[in-house]
Design a protein that fits this description.
alpha/beta, 480 residues, 7-stranded mixed sheet, 14 helices, Aldehyde Dehydrogenase, Chain A, domain 2, globular, 6-stranded mixed sheet
Length: 480
C-alpha cells in the first residue's frame, strides 16, 4: 500500500483545486483507514468542467478518424506496457480488489480501448430509396456532444474505460464523475488518456458526491447525454432528472441474475461454475448469479457440492493469487448483506453455509436455501457474497423461477442439451443468457445491458458508439 494518495480535479488537462477548497477522505476497504484525499467538487466546478468539455468537443470531433483511432490505440499500448505499475496497487488499495481481479481489470481495459479504436471506423451511415428518382436520401451518424459519465466503484478502471472509450470513439467529449469510493483511479486514467493524445479539455474529472457535483452534472444544460453504471435507485433518479431536459441516457443498473441448473448437468461441476459466477470480487458484480434454480433430480447433490466449494474458497488476502476476493467496499455494504440474510432467515429460509463477517469487511461466501419469493434476498440486489438456491420440479418451473425478478441483466443455463439450452435462452427475460456458463461474462464487443430494473441501452462495441451518436437525414434534390 502506498503511503498516501492525493488527487485534485482534472479540468482541461490541469489538476485543479475545487472552488470550495475542500477535500474528502478516501478509505481502503482492507483496513477502513484513510489512504488519501480527493478534491470535493461542487456546482461551480461542474460549470468549469462542462465548459472545457464543450470546447474539447469541437476539436476532438473534428479530428480525422485515423487520428482518434491512433490515440485510443496509444492509450491501450501505454496501459499494456505500464498498467500494473500504474494501477495495480491503486486498484487493491482503493477498491479492495484482490491481485488477480486487479490484473484482470488492467488487461480488460487494454481490450476495451483497442475495441473502441476499431469502432472509430465503423460509424456507418446509410442511404435509402426515394419514390422521386431525382432525390437522394442519406443518413449520417454524428456525435452527441458532451457526455456526462457517472461510474461505479466495483470495477473502477475497467468500467470507467468502457464508459469513456466508446463515447470518445464516436467523437464526443466527456465529463467523468466517479464513485466517491474510488475517485483516485478515475483521475489517473483520465490523465493517461490526455498523455495518449486526447485533447486535454475533452476529458475532465469531477471527484465528489452525488448531490454536490453529480446532480448538477446531470442537469447541466450543456451536457447532451448521461451514462451511468450503478444501482437501480441511482439510475431511476438520474434517468428521471436527465429526461426532463430530454438528454440521451444509457443506464447499466443492478441485477439479480439467475443461474439455471438442469438435471443433465453434473452437480459438482455446476457448483464450481456457480461459485465462479457468484463470488468474484465478493459478489460486487451486477451480473453475479445471486439466484440459482436447480432441477429437483440434482438439487441435493448440487447443494452439497456448493457447500463444499464455498468452504474451500480462499478469501481475504488481497495479494495472494489464490485468494478469490477481499473486503466489501464499506461498512454499509456489509450491513446490507447482513440485513438481506437476516430477513430471509427470519422468514423461513435456511443457511447452507457462511453468514458471518470473517474479519473487517470480509464477508464469508454465503448460500441460502429456499428464501421466500418476496424476501429481499430473493428480490433485491444484495451486491455482496450471498446467493440463494431454490428447487424446480421440472424445466418449465425452472424458467418461471428464473423469470421471477424485476431485473433482467444476465443469466446462465447449465445443460448439455443444446435444444433445451436454446429453449431456455429464448424464454428467460434477460439482456444476456449464457448456455453452459455462469451469468457473469464479459466481452468488449458485446451489448451489455438489461431489461426492467436493470436499465436501458447497451454498452460495448458498436452498440456503445451508436448509443452516443445521433442520426441525421440529409436529402439532395437533383432534378432542378
Amino acid at each position: 500500500m502506498a503511503d498516501f494518495y492525493k488527487s485534485e480535479l482534472l479540468i482541461a488537462g490541469v489538476e485543479t483545486k475545487a472552488q470550495g477548497g475542500e477535500y474528502f477522505d478516501v478509505l481502503a476497504p482492507a483496513t477502513e483507514q484513510v489512504i488519501g484525499k480527493a478534491a470535493r467538487a461542487g456546482a461551480a466546478d461542474v460549470d468549469l468542467a462542462v465548459a472545457a468539455a464543450r470546447k474539447g468537443f469541437a476539436s476532438w470531433s473534428a479530428m480525422a478518424p485515423k487520428e482518434r483511432e491512433a490515440i485510443l490505440l496509444r492509450a491501450a499500448e501505454i496501459i499494456a506496457s505500464t498498467g500494473e505499475q500504474r494501477y495495480l496497487d491503486l486498484l487493491m488499495d482503493e477498491s479492495g480488489s484482490v491481485v488477480n481481479k486487479a490484473r484482470y481489470e488492467i488487461h480488460y481495459t487494454v481490450d476495451l480501448l483497442r475495441t473502441a479504436a476499431g469502432e472509430v471506423r465503423r460509424l456507418y451511415g446509410d442511404t435509402f430509396p426515394n419514390d422521386n428518382p431525382a432525390r437522394i436520401s442519406m443518413v449520417f451518424r454524428e456525435p452527441l456532444g458532451v457526455v456526462g459519465i457517472v461510474s461505479p466503484y466495483n470495477a473502477p478502471l475497467a468500467l470507467l474505460a468502457k464508459m469513456t472509450a466508446f463515447p470518445l470513439a464516436a467523437g464526443n467529449s466527456v465529463v467523468i464523475k466517479p464513485s466517491e469510493e474510488t475517485p483516485l483511479i478515475a483521475v489517473a486514467f483520465a490523465k493517461l488518456l490526455v498523455e495518449a493524445g486526447v485533447p486535454a479539455d475533452a476529458v475532465n474529472v469531477l471527484t465528489g458526491f452525488g448531490q454536490e457535483c453529480g446532480a448538477p452534472l446531470v442537469t447541466h444544460p450543456d451536457v447532451d447525454a448521461i451514462a451511468l453504471t450503478g444501482s437501480t435507485a441511482t439510475g431511476q433518479a438520474i434517468g428521471a432528472s436527465a429526461m426532463q431536459q430530454m438528454k440521451r441516457v444509457q443506464l447499466e443498473l443492478g441485477g439479480k441474475s439467475a443461474l439455471v441448473v438442469l438435471k443433465d448437468f453434473d452437480p459438482v461441476e455446476a457448483a464450481n461454475i456457480a461459485v465462479q459466477g457468484m463470488f468474484n470480487h465478493a459478489g460486487q458484480i451486477c451480473m453475479a448469479n445471486s439466484r440459482i434454480v436447480v432441477e429437483a433430480p440434482v438439487y441435493d447433490a448440487f447443494c452439497a457440492a456448493m457447500k463444499t466449494a464455498c468452504e474451500n474458497l480462499k478469501i481475504g488476502e488481497q495479494r495472494d493469487t489464490e485468494s478469490v476476493y477481499g473486503p466489501l467496499i464499506n461498512r454499509r455494504a456489509v450491513e446490507k448483506v447482513e440485513g438481506h440474510l437476516q430477513d430471509a432467515l427470519d422468514r423461513g429460509a435456511s443457511l447452507l453455509t457462511g453468514g458471518k463477517v470473517k474479519n473487517g469487511l470480509v464477508f464469508e461466501p454465503t448460500v441460502l436455501l429456499e428464501p421466500p419469493r418476496d424476501s429481499t434476498a430473493w428480490r433485491d440486489e444484495s451486491f455482496g457474497p450471498m446467493t440463494s438456491i431454490v428447487k424446480a420440479a421440472d424445466f418449465d418451473e425452472a424458467i418461471v423461477l428464473a423469470n421471477d425478478s424485476d431485473y433482467g441483466l444476465s443469466a446462465g443455463v447449465l445443460t448439455h442439451n443444446i435444444q433445451l439450452g436454446f429453449k431456455a435462452a429464448k424464454a428467460i427475460r434477460s439482456g444476456a443468457v449464457h448456455i453452459g456458463m455462469h451469468a457473469f461474462q464479459s466481452n468488449a464487443m458485446a451489448p451489455v445491458g438489461g431489461l426492467g430494473l436493470s436499465g436501458m441501452g447497451r454498452s460495448g462495441g458498436h452498440y456503445s458508439t451508436e448509443e452516443f451518436t445521433e442520426l441525421k437525414w440529409i436529402s439532395v434534390e437533383l432534378g432542378q
